[in-house]
Design a protein that fits this description.
By secondary structure, the chain is an alpha+beta fold. Helix content is 38%, strand content 17%.
């Protein structure tokens, strides 16, 4: 309530014209009431209790305190019925709608008439064919059967678990840099350290480096829905947002793995080539470990497709009897990850700590764009920032193996 509105009420309920002293007195109270009505509900009611104790009674039996308390109650009821607060975007759209009526408002102001007036404008909130009540739940039919149990559990599409952040050196940071740079040694250095005779010159050793860079990536998506979905299916909406977050995280997880697969070099051959009569996957992995060990690296991560991993579970001897070899015997010292995100027939082996990554928390925002406000819609945006460091020199610590090709290379008398 504005101070001026309060003074109008006081003047209309007074039995005679207010004196200057009374105008000043009620004006001070009106200002206090205006301040109270701008506060939140609890603070407003506290301030109004203090003010109403200072007011008197009018001839008609109605006192000023009851008038103020009635107005406060109406404000409380309006606040209780509000389903949500207006966003800054909503307020901006309402402001523009009022500005379109600017000429009418000025004309009424200049007329200075005491006759009540009104200006009408519409902000239509109609649902469009986005994610709305008719499309979120499909296949619905009219059903008046009272003997029906509604299962609240949602059956969702199954996706592979996110794993790549457990396979590499990954950490969450509050702000992911736009660019990540590091110095990388490009040669072993000129000159060799060795024994030096008395009085002889020491060998000159020179190290060379160059800067390498990687740019930040953003994995993001959005969903759009109507306000009716939020009202009618509040729990379903929570599940949808949770599924949306998982989808963004999966895209981020898959993106990291795809980049690592593209970066890792192929199997180039080892001393095991041509030495094994009937190579199996275990021998392929052993050959990969040897290639990395030859470059002074120690692999601890193995990534396989489910089809290739299943082959290790159905081995048989010459008589057809099943042979079961535990994973820790087949792949000792390796953390095994099985996923469809690597192609069947390919195995990825490497030292996880060589690959470093920084990522942001999952960021969820909501707002409106275009005509969404007047169409009763809103957009939820989910995103995650990531910076993946893949040093050129560290390629020697990873190997990508075509399982069939490596088996052929390992086979005795292959030549």
């Amino acid at each position: 309530m504005k101070k001026e509105d309060f003074m109008k009420i006081m003047r209309s309920n007074a039995k005679q014209q207010l004196t200057d002293q009374e105008e000043s007195y009620f004006g001070s109270i009106g200002q206090a009431i205006e301040d109270a009505f701008t506060a939140d509900r609890i603070e407003r009611n506290k301030k109004l209790d203090d003010v109403t104790n200072l007011l008197g009674t009018f001839d008609d039996g109605q006192n000023a305190a009851s008038i103020i308390r009635t107005l406060a109650k109406k404000v409380d009821e309006v606040e209780a019925k509000m389903t949500r607060n207006l966003s800054d975007s909503d307020k901006g759209k309402i402001k523009r709608a009022l500005e379109s009526k600017k000429d009418e408002i000025i004309a009424i102001r200049d007329r200075k008439s005491s006759t009540p007036w009104q200006i009408e404008f519409n902000i239509k909130r109609a649902a469009s064919a986005m994610m709305q009540t008719s499309t979120v739940v499909t296949g619905a039919v009219a059903d008046n059967n009272p003997n029906q149990f509604e299962d609240v559990e949602i059956e969702v599409i199954r996706y592979p678990k996110d794993f790549i952040r457990d396979a590499i050196s990954s950490r969450q940071v509050s702000k992911v840099p736009a660019r990540w740079g590091w110095k990388e040694e490009i040669t072993a250095g000129d000159g060799a350290i060795g024994a030096v005779n008395e009085g002889a010159a020491k060998t000159l050793v020179d190290f060379k480096f160059e800067w390498k860079y990687v740019n930040r990536k953003k994995y993001a998506g959005r969903i759009e829905l109507t306000e009716e979905v939020e009202i009618d299916f509040d729990q379903l909406l929570l599940d949808i947002v949770d599924m949306f977050e998982s989808k963004v995280l999966r895209a981020y997880n898959d993106g990291l793995l795809a980049d690592i697969i593209a970066w890792a070099p192929a199997y180039a051959g080892t001393a095991l080539d041509g030495t094994i009569k009937k190579p199996i996957l275990m021998n392929v992995v052993t050959a990969g470990r040897l290639q990395l060990a030859s470059a002074e690296y120690s692999p601890d991560v193995l990534i396989l497709n489910p089809a290739d991993y299943a082959g290790t579970q159905v081995m048989q001897n010459v008589n057809g009897d099943p042979i079961f070899i535990p994973d820790n015997v087949l792949f000792p010292g390796l953390r095994l990850f099985v996923t469809n995100k690597i192609a069947a027939g390919t195995a990825l082996l490497g030292e996880g700590s060589l690959v470093k990554e920084q990522h942001s928390p999952f960021i969820l925002r909501q707002g409106v764009y275009g005509n969404q406000f007047i169409e009763n819609e809103k957009t939820i945006v989910g995103e995650l920032f990531s910076c993946l460091k893949l040093p050129t020199e560290s390629k020697k610590g990873w190997v990508k193996m075509n399982i069939a090709a490596v088996k052929q290379a390992l086979t005795l008398n292959n030549a």
